[in-house]
């Protein structure tokens, strides 16, 4: 009989995050609303029957961490912000996998674009 493996995914989708971000000083002057997705898989998923927040990753705390990192300083690049968010989440939890996507809606480009994005992925 083959052994069964269980993986649990926890995610936040399109968390609205104010951030001073952009390559130019003018672009960074006013806070912009970024959309952040976080998807993570605990290395040792809790038994869901326990129904106990302390036995899993609290997505509310993850959201607070994302907001804190984005507000900590101005950023030039989406990938820098995504990397710092991913580093902080990865170091705070024992995870099998983590993906952080930062989207900047309607970036200032010569042609219209729905969003620019950067993604950072960690895996064990």
* Percent in helix: 25-40%
Model regions low in confidence, pLDDT < 50 over at least 5 residues: none
Number of domains: 1
Q: How many helix segments? A: 3
CATH superfamily: GTP cyclohydrolase I, C-terminal domain/NADPH-dependent 7-cyano-7-deazaguanine reductase, N-terminal domain
> Could you please say which CATH topology applies here?
GTP Cyclohydrolase I, domain 2
The overall average pLDDT, rounded, is: 94
Secondary-structure element order, N to C: EHEHHEE
What does this structure look like?
With 124 residues, the protein is of the alpha+beta class. It is built from three helices and four strands; from the N terminus they run βαβααββ. Strands 1-2-3-4 form a four-stranded antiparallel beta sheet, covered by helices on one side. The chain starts with 9 loop residues before the first strand and ends with a strand.
Short description:
It contains three helices and four strands; from the N terminus they run βαβααββ. The chain has 124 residues and is α+β, with helices and mostly antiparallel strands. Strands 1-2-3-4 form a four-stranded antiparallel β-sheet, covered by helices on one side.
């Amino acid at each position: 009989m083959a052994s069964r493996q269980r993986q649990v995914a926890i995610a936040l989708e399109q968390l609205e995050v104010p951030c001073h971000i952009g390559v130019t000083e003018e672009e960074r002057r006013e806070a912009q609303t970024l959309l952040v997705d976080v998807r993570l898989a605990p290395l040792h998923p809790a038994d869901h029957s326990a129904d106990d927040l302390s036995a899993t990753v609290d997505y509310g705390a993850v959201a607070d961490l994302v907001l804190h990192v984005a507000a900590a300083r101005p950023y030039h690049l989406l990938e820098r912000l995504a990397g710092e968010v991913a580093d902080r989440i990865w170091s705070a939890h024992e995870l099998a996998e983590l993906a952080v996507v930062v989207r900047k809606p309607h970036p200032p480009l010569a042609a219209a674009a729905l969003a620019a994005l950067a993604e950072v992925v960690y895996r064990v």
